[in-house]
Amino acid sequence: MNTPEKEPSSQVPPLHCSLTVENLTSLGTVHKSVTYKGIKLILGRNEFRDIIVRMDGAKHSLQFPVRDFQLHKRFMKEGKATISQKNVNLNLMIANAPPNQLAIFMKTLASKHTLLGPKQGVINARQRLLSTVPKSFEEISPLTLKEYETVRSNNGRMPLKERNGNVPGASPVSSKRKMDKEVQLPKDLPSLKRQAPSLRNQLVLTTEQKKVLQIVQSGHNVFFTGSAGTGKSLLLKLIVGALSPDVTFVTASTGVAACQIGGTTLHAFAGIGSGHASLEQCVQLASRKVVAQQWRKCKHLIVDEISMVDGVFFKVQSENEKPQIGPGSSQDVAGYQKGEGETKEDSQCLMSMLMLLALPHTQKLEAVGRAIRGNNKPFGGIQLILCGDFLQLPPVTKPGEKRVFCFQTSAWNRCINISMELTEVRRQDDQEFINILQSIRLGRCTEDMVDCLKSTESNEVEKDGIKATRLCTHREDVDHINQEHLNKLTGNAKVFQAIDSDPHLSKNLDSQTPVVTKLVLKVGTQVMLMKNLDVGKGLVNGARGVVTGFKQGNEGYPIVRFLCGVTADVKHEKWTVRGTGGIYLSRRQLPLKLAWAFSIHKSQGMTLDCAEMSLSRVFEAGQAYVALSRARNLKGLRVLDFNPTCVRAHPDVLKFYEDLRKIYDLEQQSIESYL
Ligand SMILES: Nc1ncnc2c1ncn2[C@@H]1O[C@H](COP(=O)(O)OP(=O)(O)OP(=O)(O)O)[C@@H](O)[C@H]1O
Ligand SMILES: [Mg+2]
Q1: Of ligand 1's atoms, which has the minimum distance to the CA of residue 389?
Q2: Which of 82, 116, 139 is the last residue of a domain?
Q3: 407 shares its domain with 469
Q4: The pLDDT of residue 181 is above 70
Q5: 296 falls in which pLDDT band (50, 70, 90)?
Q6: pTM greater than the 0.80 cutoff
Q7: Of the candidate ranges 93-102, 217-226, 530-539, 642-651, the one whose mean pLDDT is the lowest
Q8: In which residues is ATP bound (predicted)?
Q9: What mean pLDDT do residues 285-300 have?
Q10: Contact between residue 578 and residue 584 where contact means Cβ atoms under 8 Å apart
Q11: Substitution candidate for ligand 1 out of 230, 427, 626 with most atoms within 8 A of CB
Q12: Residue 132 belongs to what domain range?
């Protein structure tokens, strides 16, 4: 069960998508355009070994030989790409394709065209006409490792002829046009989507991860969980890439968590304000054109970090009890205290949403879904994909208030068909550390473990001027430590101001992107990278470094030396988030954050190169576990004043997991039948 498996090498999967076929005039203007929705594309070869894109639809089956083509792949992540054939004035515009499958499809097309030596151009039109070879269509087999390596060895780029097709006389690629940009081999995590998983050994899914993926693809409402570092977020990204982007909405409980998976808050998706209004009002709000369109479009709703939902604000009710929603019930929400790493707005909206999500029968979010979609199935037939670890950070509650988790509501059982647990830890590879973390997750800490963690106090985690990030329990400490250290540096301060698509919505972007509006850096600033820039080189989200200088010129980009040994100029990156009503907002900023200190709440979900922590002021169950489990190994960890009393797990959550495992064992057979 726990051994990573090689993906079976099967056929190139058909690509489910929409296709617009554009016939162009000789001047390049569109002469005729037809769109086919809900079709599948299959790659094959005909009797002349030409590559054929075959379109199978409910009413039509069409074949398009592709010879002298150019690939436009800039919008692959949005499930869009174009195969442009200038010689026959034809554009095949693909849309609404699962990004992962689209990536495999395009890469296979490009690679096979070059590497398998197409014969088109050799067989002329007359020969084709007179040919007695029977017509045939043979599906193209997936890329082999050898083919892949051949492409890879070519400096990470496809040969030029492939970028432009290889028919003699093909027009050269304009350097201004970037249509070949994406033909570059993948460097970072998102570009994982650009290749067959079977070709990337280090990221071959485990059996457990594959099972979850398959179950999700079979359309069931799924909750998947697992301890820190079992690859939940990685899997979630792959799930997102395997679903059609137009109908998949990626959300998380807080803006910070949403950022990690490239999504938005659940609140922003729902478009029903804070959710305090009556059901009728909520339905009205959701009936606004853009919001309703979003609800109607949605087929898959993904919610990450589901554990951070505050159940105190929805009462556990019996099926017959009338849920207390509406203006009169908002007092709990008004009294809410925001937690570390989230804005009050985030938290309130989240609670309201999940309050609604978890209420039985008349639950608003669910009811809104049914009303707007005109479908009486739960959530109007939307597939729910929920992910999180209830033994990590819990919902924030007021002192003395009873904590109710989302899973304690009757709605949870009704909505979630299948719960699955990932058990193989991938963040750490040191078994001793893994054992300690697993035990701490369950709220247990033996004397040996205490000794081991205490011994890390003397660890030298600093290297090459890069200091360990201090993980703090309280946000005030984070701000104080970072500011104090920055002030102590004597060099000139350089300010990098974010450029937002809508400055009026900067607050929204503050909570939904991991970077700040105003970043002040000096030589010697300890920084953390907030985006994967180059996974191969170790420039990943969470990588630690120090500013060693600034480039000359207007932009004056910082030069950062990272712990992985790489020194790089860090330039602007762009974050795009989908706000309420499906409107896109974007921020351009350097992907850096001050990293002398970081809050434990904000570190949830991250992998850190080196971390230092004092856990004496831990105030939450699971908080110590979250902090400790960010480190990759014991060497990269320094725990100051370790006291085992900081290790706590909530008894209700422990019971939930105990029951989950029993049910899971019982369900195994039926789960197999879903696959
Ligand atoms: N199948 C896999 N093969 C190789 N590496 C993997 C695999 N799955 C996950 N990883 C790596 O393990 C690390 C942890 O993964 P990830 O952050 O997705 O875990 P998580 O379960 O979301 O953790 P957390 O609960 O802390 O958020 C990442 O560096 C990820 O790339
Ligand atoms: Mg995660």
Answers
A1: 25
A2: 139
A3: no
A4: no
A5: confident
A6: no
A7: 530-539
A8: 226-233
A9: 84
A10: yes
A11: 427
A12: 15-139
Residue 582 near residue 270 (C-beta atoms within 8 A):
no
Average pLDDT value over all residues in the chain: 77
* Cβ neighbours of residue 442 closer than 8 Å, sequence gap 6 or more: 391, 649, 654
Please indicate, yes or no, whether residues 535 and 387 belong to a single structural domain of this protein.
no
Nearest-angstrom CA–CA distance, 656 and 390: 9
Longest dimension (CA), the chain: 87
Q: Which range, 161-170, 186-195, 577-586, has the best average confidence (pLDDT)?
A: 577-586
Q: 486 and 604 share a domain?
A: yes
Q: For the chain, how many structural domains are there in total?
A: 3
Residue 501 maps to a domain: yes
Average pLDDT over residues 154-181: 36
CA 6 to centroid of ligand 1, rounded, Å = 17
Q: Is 233 annotated as a binding residue?
A: yes
Does residue 351 lie within any of the structural domains? yes
Say if residue 381 is in the same domain as residue 318: yes
- Helix, strand and coil content of the chain, in percent to the nearest 5, comes to 35, 25, 40
Burial class (CB in 10 A: 0-12, 13-18, 19+), 354: buried
655 domain residue, yes or no: no
What's the CA-to-centroid distance between 461 and ligand 2, angstroms? 24
Distance 234 CA to ligand 2 centre (A): 7
pLDDT value of residue 274: 58
Count of Cβ atoms closer than 10 Å to residue 483 Cβ: 14
The CATH number of whichever domain residue 69 belongs to comes to 2.30.29
Give the pLDDT confidence score for residue 10 in this predicted structure: 54
DSSP 3-state of 103: helix
In this prediction, the answer to ipTM > 0.90 reads yes
Pocket of ligand 1 (CB under 6 A): 202-203, 205-206, 209, 226, 228-234, 389, 426-427, 605, 607, 629
Q: How remote is the CA of residue 606 from the centroid of ligand 2, in Å?
A: 7
CA gap 590, 587 in Å, rounded: 10
Q: Is residue 362 part of a domain?
A: yes
Angle at 656 between CA 650 and CA 659, to 5 degrees: 145
C-beta separation of 380 from 283 below 8 A:
no
| Amino acid identity, position 326 | G
Q: Which residue has the higher pLDDT, 480 or 119?
A: 480
